[in-house]
Give the backbone structure.
Amino acid sequence: MIGTYPTTSAGKVDYAKLTISTFQPSIEVKNLTKKVRDDYGIGYEIMNRKFEEFNNLSLIDRMNVDQKAFNNYVQPKSQNPDAAWRWNGIRPITRNKLLSIAAHVIAVMLYPEIIAQNDQDETDKKAAEIMKYIMEWMVQNSDYDMSFLYGVIAALVNPVAYLEAEYVEAMQKVKIRQENGEIKEQEMIDEILSGFQANNIPADEIMIANPYEYYLQRQRFIIRKKWVDYDEAEAIYGEHENFKYVKPGIKCFYDNDMGTFYEQNYEGMNTLCEISIYKNRREDMEIPFVNGIYMGEADVENNSIKHRDYRGAPKYNLVKFGYHPIDEKRFYFYQSAAFEAFHDQQLADRTWRLFIDGTWLEVMSPLAIIGGKKIGSNVFFPGSTVNLPKDSNVLKLGPQRDLSAALNALKLTEQSMEDTLISKGLSGQTEDEQKTYSEVALAERNARINLGIFGETVAKAVEEFGELMIDIAINNLTVAHIQELTGGNVQMAYRSLLLPNQTEEGRNFTRKITFDATMINRKMTKEEVLKESYDIFNRNGGF
């Protein structure tokens, strides 16, 4: 979407060194691309801007630092022979604490709950009950559980975590043998890839308009960008008339002054393409680009947002959440648990290295030999013998080392991390030293408070994600679709949803939800509803 310009010795753009793209669309597409390019530049700048809230790091840099802490990153050994002996290992405190917090949060998996708007209205109660079963079916037939787990971990490690709700209708080609023995290729819905999807989106794949607008739905625009293999991009957009201009590893950007598209190489991306999907909720606009090339509708006015709420209004199909808020609902991002533990982790690592280095020096101290010959280090092993001249004096170099001081400092640092994150008691570990009841209670109280704040942000995200699921259910699962019959005839068919292993009043059964077009706008008395219920009950085998 954006490119870099070569310049002349006078500092002006050297257009002679730019490659003109074969993609030169209509003026309408050019104007739309310019608008998206300008917003892409805003989002890119925000993603790479240094924030005081991140300790003067950018979003990308903050993610890299905190992910290294979570993944127990160890710096390479020094190439300096005089320093190569030093211990460069770390204490895996941050990772252990964060995984323990994640285990506590998902100990009771959170699912969206449906409640009737008016619990005194029988119609509302029945509608809420049916929607509850539909959402249960969506959860069972998706990767919701694992997405929720990884979302919690992402929120603990990164400045923001995203969950995306999406409904996919993927097609696959199948070969069907005809009555005459011939093989005919036919397209049908891929049941494995199709349906409701709960996706984790990395924080560095979402660009926003305003870092000081807390609410995602109030962002003027969001841009989802990701790198995919060229074959995957072709599978998604290969039938678009503009895909013939897409080249792997080559980005296309629009220059407003010249009114021309130019090409540039992506360094190290020879087989990849960047898919960027621009969404503007207020303008009801959703436009995909591949390597900067327009993949939207032929009529640029028809690029509406795909996700609609129950009223048919556009909505971003994302929810965001994080570990702890940074300020009073002003800053968009959060402070991750890895960020909160960063300085204590640095201190613990440094103290641990000093302790290990000091232990090595204590066990194998450097020596000074006075009045004797030089002795190589290769003689220092058990049972070795060495002859020294008479009156030689061997002295241990270095000051007296107090290793207990390093251990005490390490314990204090780890205690600080317990107060910040989660105590050993809450995480199920046995305390390695005697503590008073009040000390243990205080540590657990602090940990529960921190978990409570995080739990609130997670619960809010689950609530918002449930609203997106309701939108998808209403707009996709409860509507009829065209079904082709034998002989080329078609009819409108409704989906049936099966919920196995249901338990009610001690009975196990499979619940079936069926939508029937004949029931639309039909008014029924209580007696008719009861009779219909018994008919359904009998059709399914009764008791």
Observations:
- The two ends are 63 Å apart (CA to CA).
- The mean pLDDT is 82.
- DSSP finds eleven helices and 21 strands in the chain.
- Residues 367 and 396 are 5 Å apart (CA to CA).
